[in-house]
Amino acid sequence: MTNPTQDFIYHIGIVGNPWGDSEKQQWLTEQQIKRSYQDQVVTPLQQVPDTAEVVNYGTLDYSAFNLPVYSLFAVRSKNWQADKPIVLVTGGVHGYETSGVQGALQFIQEEFSRYSKQVNLLVLPCISPWGYETINRWNPKAVDPNRSFGAQSQSDEASLAMAFVRQHAGEVLVHIDLHETTDSDNSEFRPAKAARDGTVNHNWNIPDGFYLVGDTDKPEPGFQRAIIEAVQNVTHIAEADENGCLIGEKLAQFGVVNYPKRSLGLCGGMTDAKFVTTTEVYPDSPKASPEQCNAAQVAVICAGVDFALA
After folding, report:
1. How distant is the alpha carbon of residue 110 from its chain centre?
2. Domain count, the chain
3. Hey, which end of the chain has fewer CB within 10 Å, N or C?
4. What pLDDT score does 2 carry?
5. According to the model, what pLDDT value does residue 203 have?
6. What pLDDT score does 5 carry?
7. In Å, how far are 96, 132, 145, 169, 290 from 34, measured between CA atoms?
8. Can you give the pTM of this predicted structure?
9. C-alpha–C-alpha distance, residues 167 and 63, integer Å
10. Are 137 and 144 in contact (CB under 8 A)?
């Protein structure tokens, strides 16, 4: 388990004053494209299993910021059947969390056909493509998409994903949202958030290992436990800190904390799914490779669906 880095003052803005347009513009000019959404996400989607179809569900037009226009893609069961439950998988809500995107793509390639016989699958592998390219938590407007899944959303990424999911009639039985917790949460993203909001940042311990965030309103502990047990075969599970917490939250059970997803505007709260969880992979661990991180995401989806169907 890593120790929190020293709290520090972010380099943009004045302490205690929320950012205005000039500070947000300064922040935006510092962001750089570091990898290719087209090459690493769109191109792999050109070869999906025969049981799947790729759907363009919207466009993110950031040309007003002198940035690219991004097409958004989902993969769904080609033989969609109204009497089958829906399994929703979302990745890349925070674009910098790599295994959330790559794990979703790996699931499509390796496991999609097997589960499409039992459920209707709907996979949105990269909800925030600009965030993916710039390895960023926010969108170009300095808005966190994963606090924007609600009626008053300020994130086009979240709004387009919600609208697309709503088009699919039927019971959403399972929603698995694929994320990571990284060392950069302390070194960049939490200090930037505090500066943007005019608040004081206090870094937390970054857990060394995998954990889950269940939904406070429907925790489904057996579901979470089954996933943790499956992931243990792939990578290690995070231990609680000296206060019995992970990221400042009291442990609900080994490897699991709970958040009120809907009230916080989290992606995991956008449906009425009975079984909901958010993964948190730790890619900066010396004990976990990128391949293990991706495999852990796949293991979560498979174990979650298996439990729900059982």
Report:
1. 20
2. 1
3. C
4. 47
5. 85
6. 46
7. 10, 9, 20, 38, 18
8. 0.96
9. 27
10. yes
165 is written with which tokens?
A: 């999911």
pLDDT per residue as tens digits for the range 176-196: 999 999 999 999 999 999 999
At residue 67, the 3 state secondary structure works out as coil
In total, the chain counts a number of residues equal to 310
Is 14 inside a domain boundary?
Answer: no
Domain of 177, CATH number, reads 3.40.630.10
Strands (E), the chain: 52-61, 69-77, 86-91, 120-124, 172-178, 211-215, 245-246, 249-250, 256-259, 275-280
User: pLDDT below 50 — which residues of the chain?
Assistant: 2-5
Residue 3 lies in a domain: no
Q: Is residue 52 part of a domain?
A: yes
pLDDT tens for residues 20-79? 999 999 999 999 999 999 999 999 999 999 999 999 999 999 999 999 999 999 999 999
Query: What separation, in Å, do the N-terminal and C-terminal C-alpha atoms of the chain show?
Result: 35
Total Cβ atoms within 10 A of residue 150: 18
Give me the residue label for tokens 């999911």.
165
**118 assigned to some structural domain:** yes
